[in-house]
Specification:
Photosynthetic Reaction Center, Chain H, domain 2
């Protein structure tokens, strides 16, 4: 069953293709009144917390979150996430 980003639970698994690369640590919106998820913070197994743009999410279902790219190396350039580095975002979950 398809789900929306806004209904994700913290700890939801994140996959690139069939490889589990991490889990959801936070959902963030841009601006003080926004309600739509713009960034998904993922605790990437080999890198710690990174900011994944919502446009990189391919699907959300009972298995978890699947990213668009199938090769985790495609995401090597994702920025590390700290709230100080993203001063315009607001935590949704």
């Amino acid at each position: 069953m398809a789900r929306t980003l806004e209904t994700l639970d913290l700890g939801t698994p994140v996959y690139c293709g069939e490889e589990r690369v991490g889990e959801v640590r936070g959902l963030y919106a841009e601006g003080s009144s926004a309600r739509s998820v713009e960034w998904v913070v993922v605790n990437w197994r080999s890198r710690g917390d990174v900011a994944v743009p919502a446009i990189e999410i391919g699907s959300v279902d009972d298995r978890g979150v699947t990213l668009i790219q199938h090769d985790p190396r495609e995401y090597a350039g994702l920025p590390a996430f700290t709230e100080e580095r993203f001063p315009t975002v607001r935590k949704l979950a």
